[in-house]
């Protein structure tokens, strides 16, 4: 896996990232840090990556468990250390899983398997942050 991150120059703190899979992502800093607030912060991108990684796992596990899943949203709320390096210290994942006749035990198992075994991003972040998760099921 590879990516290239390039400063866009000028007076700001905007960066463009090109991923190995051929996609482009922009990032920017907060105005009080020299940025212009034109794109997500790099640390927000870490949360986005963790959310995408675990949502992917949960949907795949539910499909393989023959659950009629039709939607999966993950809301992440994080706290950071006050001092540098301002690592994540707590991250809460809240899953809203939509489908027909979803088995709560199967959904809980999918979330747990993702966080304990499959989601590389959240497992890596758990080295500095306390990771918690909850879920709710919405009948389609």
Fold blueprint:
Layout: E1 3-7, E2 15-19, E3 24-27, H1 42-64, E4 68-80, E5 88-100, H2 104-118, H3 120-125, E6 130-139
Parallel strand pairs: 5-6
Antiparallel strand pairs: 1-2, 2-3, 4-5
Q: CATH-wise, what's the superfamily of the largest domain?
A: K homology (KH) domain
Mean pLDDT: 96
Q: Strand portion, in percent?
A: 35-45%
| CATH architecture call of the largest domain | 2-Layer Sandwich
Question: What attributes does this structure have?
Answer:
GMP Synthetase, Chain A, domain 3, 6 strands, single chain, 2 domains, 3 helices, 31% helix, 3-stranded antiparallel beta sheet, elongated, alpha+beta, 140 residues, 3-stranded mixed beta sheet
Explained architecture:
This protein is an alpha+beta fold and 140 residues long. It has two domains: 3-33, no CATH class; 42-139, K homology (KH) domain (GMP Synthetase, Chain A, domain 3), CATH 3.30.300.20. It is built from three helices and six strands; from the N terminus they run E-E-E-H-E-E-H-H-E. The chain has helices at 42-64, 104-118, 120-125; strands spanning 3-7, 15-19, 24-27, 68-80, 88-100, 130-139. The strands form two sheets. The protein has a three-stranded antiparallel β-sheet with strand order 1-2-3, with no helix packed on it. It has a three-stranded mixed β-sheet with strand order 4-5-6, with helices on one face. A hairpin with a 7-residue loop joins strand 1 and strand 2. The model has no long low-confidence stretch (mean pLDDT 96).
């Amino acid at each position: 896996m590879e990516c290239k991150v390039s400063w866009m120059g000028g007076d700001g703190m905007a960066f463009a990232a090109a991923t190995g899979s051929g996609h482009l992502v922009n990032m920017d800093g907060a105005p009080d840090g020299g940025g212009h607030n034109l794109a997500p912060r790099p640390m927000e991108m870490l949360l986005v990556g963790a959310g995408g990684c675990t949502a992917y796992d949960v949907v795949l596990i539910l499909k393989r468990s023959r659950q009629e899943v039709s939607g999966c949203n993950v809301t992440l709320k994080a706290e950071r250390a006050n001092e540098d390096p301002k690592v994540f210290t707590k991250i809460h994942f809240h899953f809203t899983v939509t489908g027909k006749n979803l088995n709560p035990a199967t959904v809980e198992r999918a979330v747990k398997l993702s966080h304990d075994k499959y989601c590389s991003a959240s497992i890596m972040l758990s080295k500095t942050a306390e990771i918690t998760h909850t879920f709710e099921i919405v009948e389609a």
